[in-house]
Design goal:
2 domains; 415 residues; binds adenosine-5'-diphosphate; binds magnesium ion; alpha/beta; Carbamate kinase; VC0802-like; binds aspartic acid
């Protein structure tokens, strides 16, 4: 007998018929003699609708109240799934974030999980019930307020619960049958990756592949939780296993996947004083507004007095970052501030590139052939990212997918 955590995303629980379908998949797993905990998202489109309501009332919302509103979608689906299970004779009980003891920090709208007591989950499992838990939500450690884990956060709920309960596996059921070499909605030739390492998946997720929320992969890696990405609509398919690199027999591929992120905005400060402490002042002010800065590029100063500084932030945080810069403009004598929210980031990812020169050059020339201008570049051992104009995103992803031969079969399997 195993302990299995299953997670169903928004499309999988998009209406009552689909919820009944999910109940059958869960019942099958339970019928094998396993203990089962299920994390669910809100119905597809529901969280967007709730965010829309908040934006209609407030352009700059109090994030505590934002969480109060946007966390509600999951409360509906957990109750409905528990009912659907009971209707087919499977004892089930649902828990919200606070009922299961999912405790987070106070960073409303992007809270991080601190602890999970899971007392009630364990008690209910001992009574042989299927436990259905709300994805995406927890309660803050000191005030007991509702907090959400950032968009796509139900993945993280599932993996964190799996880690907390030392589950044997965490199955993420979604609307694609695994992790692909790139978003299969953009490149039809994209291939399913049968096995992928935590590190590669971490890069894919953080660079935009929304099939798993980045933090869910961080948790999986830290606590060594095997994660499988599988299709709700073809549950018999094996999907993708996300696991330790040591367990994977790697074929020598340079690049394993391409990711893109359209949720980027670029801010350039020109004529900034080239002196110690300036970058620190700027980025301290921005982080005080809780804005996540992604890429940073500072040019070499030509006159040894001033320089240009560019960085990217999430699109919806651009105005907050600009407000922080504006407050410093006089003090730091910033000559000009340029903001562009029509940019995107495309990235190539692969552990194979650690030992190979020329991968970045290959990427740049593939983009150049299409006349795509690169505005910013950042690299690490296992990825190269470029900021380009948003309108070229799909073209860039397709061109890079072809350039690195990802449409061809790759042999990657467990050792
Ligand atoms: P859920 O609602 O189940 O959480 P998401 O919409 O968050 O599902 O994530 C699944 C989607 O992720 C897919 O429909 C697909 O378009 C997108 N996606 C982006 N990159 C990839 C990739 N490399 N492999 C698979 N899916 C991807
Ligand atoms: N419902 C939340 C969202 O849409 C969480 C999730 O689906 O993972 O972001
Ligand atoms: Mg998701």
């Amino acid at each position: 007998m195993a302990l299995i955590v299953m997670k169903f995303g928004g499309t999988s629980v998009g209406n009552c018929e689909k919820i009944k379908g999910v109940a059958k998949i869960v019942a099958n797993e339970k019928a094998k003699g396993n203990d089962v905990v299920v994390a669910v998202s809100a119905m597809s489109g529901e969280t967007d609708k709730l965010v829309g309501f908040v934006n209609e009332i407030s352009a700059n919302p109090d994030w505590r109240e934002y969480d109060q509103v946007v966390s509600t979608g999951e409360q509906v689906t957990i109750g409905l799934l528990a009912l659907a299970l009971q209707e087919i004779g499977v004892p089930a009980i649902s828990f919200t974030g606070w009922q299961m003891g999912m405790v987070t920090n106070a960073a409303h709208s992007k809270a991080r999980i601190r602890t999970i007591s899971a007392e009630r989950i364990k008690l209910a499992l001992a009574e042989s019930k299927v436990v259905v838990v709300a994805g995406f939500q927890g309660i803050t450690e000191h005030t007991g307020d509702i907090a959400t884990l950032g968009r796509g956060g139900s993945d993280t709920t599932a993996v964190a619960v799996a880690a907390g309960l030392k589950a044997d596996v965490c199955d993420i059921y979604t609307d694609v049958d695994g992790v692909y070499t790139t978003d299969p909605r953009i490149v039809p030739e994209a291939r399913r990756i049968p096995v992928i390492s935590y590190d590669e998946m971490l890069e894919m997720a953080s660079l935009g592949a929304k099939v798993l929320q980045t933090r869910s992969v961080e948790f999986a890696k830290k606590y060594n939780v095997p994660v499988r990405v599988r299709s709700t609509f073809k549950p018999e398919d094996e999907g993708t296993l996300v696991t330790r690199e040591e367990d994977i027999k790697m074929e020598k591929v340079l690049v394993s996947g391409i990711a893109y992120n359209k949720n980027e905005a670029k801010i350039t400060l020109s004529g900034v004083a080239d002196a110690p402490g300036v970058a620190s002042t700027i980025f301290t002010a921005i982080s005080a507004k809780n804005v996540n800065v992604d890429m940073i590029v500072q040019n070499v100063s030509k006159d040894h007095a001033t320089t240009d500084l560019s960085f990217t932030v999430p699109k919806n945080e651009m105005n907050m970052a600009l407000a922080a810069v504006e407050e410093l403009r006089k003090e730091l004598k910033i000559a000009d501030v340029l903001a562009d929210n029509k940019v995107a980031k495309v990235s190539i990812i692969g552990v194979g590139m650690q030992s190979h020169a020329g991968v970045a050059a290959q990427m740049f020339s593939a983009l150049a052939k299409e006349g795509i201008n690169i505005m910013m570049i950042s690299t690490s051992e296992i990825k190269v990212s470029c900021v380009i104009s948003e309108k070229y995103t799909e073209l860039a992803v397709r061109v890079l997918h072809e350039c690195f031969g990802l449409e061809k079969e790759q042999v990657k399997e467990l050792k």
